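INTERNAL AUDIT FORM
Audit reference: QA-55
Scope: verify that the stored structure record matches its stored sequence.
Auditor: D.O.
Record contents follow.
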Amino acid sequence: MAEFVIRDAVVGDADALGRVHVRAWQAAYRGVMPDEYLDGLSAVDRAEMWRGRIARTDLTPLLVAVVDDEPVGFATYGAEQPSDDATGSGQLYAMNVDPDHWGGGIGRALLRRATDALVAAGYRDAVLWVVPENARARALYESEGWVDDHALATEEILGVTVRDMRLRTRLGTD
């Protein structure tokens, strides 16, 4: 297992995050999203998105996992995004790890760091949305105590309609 550190993202991470984002989606969503869509994802476009996102200090935190000075994963989190049944929870908005680093504990470490930050921010529980067919991600979340709360949603993500299920977990100790 490669040694890694988790830190806050800086603008210089954007190019690597663009590559991670595209590679993770192409590996995780093959057979779930159209191949032509996945094959057309642009690391340059995603890097520009991340560069703008990181530069804005008014947005929610973005953590990166770094191996040998190269970002290989990321997670972003904050207050639950508004929805018809939002409960005022914290939320893991997104988490991706480069497929070359799957299974090495990076995703678990990012998830734990994000949930620890949500606890520190005063949240008592948290939610995340995951594509039901993403068995690898679901297995990680479920192994960390996240459970299906039976909420479903359909959303458009980067131009493709995707079905999601919501997982929920209690944070901290009561």
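Auditor finding: record pair retrieved intact. Residues 1 and 104 are 5 Å apart (CA to CA).
Action required: none
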